[in-house]
């Protein structure tokens, strides 16, 4: 593209600058007024079927919607809060490019083995296979306390949801994926193996490093990463890939409320995050889509830190 006086030269055709600017602005307006549709135009990269526990809210909801807009043929919106899951599933309909897209909502408590097993059975009986499984079911810290005053009750609750839940999720997603045929896609030089399925656990920057006063969260997120790596090594021979996405702060309702209640947090985050802002939900779900597609076909057992550079800094 060459800029000339009063014209923009695109492929050697002179176009008046005003027309060109109008076109760019209309594209920008279209993207802003149709954000999910715009995403589907930009990222229609997948087909297949997804299961997402925690899809009723926050990161899980955004990941489940992202599968729809990226071209999945079906998505299971699973959550302990079935009304929230139904609402998110309804929102996904008509958003994606797949002509026979189907969304279903399923009630699941990830701490209950029979619930998680039945979730995967329902997904397979509805769609025939599970290509992508993302676990974002989680709880927030209610009682921050230094180690000397740590609440055993809250510690056990975190281990129930974040650790037992992750184990059950990986176990039953794996059982379903092991039974299905691997998929391939055309690479540049040869056919590329996409494998039998992709499992993603939503960890945290606290899967790597602690912050003061939340041993229950930090320990549970470290354990989640341990399960992710174990599942990855056990599943590698079956070509099922398992990764964790490990964000720092993400703009969710929970985090917005925390910021509203404590305005000092804003300043603290600006100092702690080199990029000076927290992550958007779509900056997490876009990574889930990348790891699910051909871009992630040789990647397993890794924690993908999404933190705007937070973990690069030493406290001085
Ligand atoms: N928001 C952040 O800043 C942030 C940062 C790093 C990691 N994470 C992690 O991402 C995950 C999602 O967090 P979020 O901010 O989107 O939270 P959220 O509260 O918006 O969503 C969590 C969802 O999980 C569901 N859930 C809770 N317990 C469940 C259970 N036993 N069974 C099934 N579903 C259950 C909830 O109903 C809710 O819909 C959590 O694991 C969290 O630790 C969040």
Automatic annotation (TrEMBL):
This is Uncharacterized protein. SUPFAM superfamilies: NAD(P)-binding Rossmann-fold domains. Keywords: NADP, Oxidoreductase. It comes from the Eukaryota. Belongs to the short-chain dehydrogenases/reductases (SDR) family. CDD domains: SDR_c. Coiled coil: none annotated. Signal peptide: none annotated. InterPro entries: NAD(P)-bd_dom_sf, Sc_DH/Rdtase_CS, SDR_fam.
């Amino acid at each position: 593209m060459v800029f000339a006086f009063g014209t923009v030269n695109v492929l050697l055709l002179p176009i008046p600058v005003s027309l060109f600017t109008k076109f760019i602005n209309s594209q920008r307006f279209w993207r802003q007024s149709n954000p999910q549709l715009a995403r589907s135009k930009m990222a229609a990269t997948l087909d297949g079927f997804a299961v997402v526990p925690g899809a009723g809210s926050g990161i899980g909801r955004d990941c489940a919607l992202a599968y729809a807009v990226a071209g999945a043929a079906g998505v299971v919106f699973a959550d302990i809060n079935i009304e929230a899951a139904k609402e998110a599933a309804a929102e996904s309909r008509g958003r994606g490019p797949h002509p026979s897209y189907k969304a279903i909502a399923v009630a699941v408590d990830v701490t209950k083995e029979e619930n998680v097993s039945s979730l995967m059975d329902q997904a397979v009986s509805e769609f025939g296979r599970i290509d992508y499984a993302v676990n974002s079911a989680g709880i927030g810290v209610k009682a921050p306390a230094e180690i000397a005053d740590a609440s055993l009750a809250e510690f056990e609750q975190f281990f129930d949801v974040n650790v037992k839940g992750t184990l059950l999720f990986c176990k039953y997603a794996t059982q379903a994926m092991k039974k299905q045929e691997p998929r391939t896609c055309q690479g540049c030089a040869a056919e590329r193996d996409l494998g039998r399925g992709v499992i993603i656990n939503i960890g945290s920057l606290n899967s790597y490093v602690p912050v003061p006063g939340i041993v229950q969260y930090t320990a549970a997120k470290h354990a989640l990463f341990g399960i992710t790596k174990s599942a990855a090594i056990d599943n590698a021979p079956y070509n099922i890939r398992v990764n964790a996405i490990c964000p720092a702060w993400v703009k969710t309702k929970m985090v917005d409320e925390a910021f509203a209640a404590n305005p000092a947090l804003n300043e603290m985050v600006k100092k702690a995050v080199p990029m000076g802002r927290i992550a958007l939900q779509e900056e997490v779900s876009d990574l889930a889509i990348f790891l699910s597609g051909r871009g992630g076909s040789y990647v397993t057992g890794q924690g993908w830190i999404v933190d705007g550079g937070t973990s690069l800094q030493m406290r001085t």
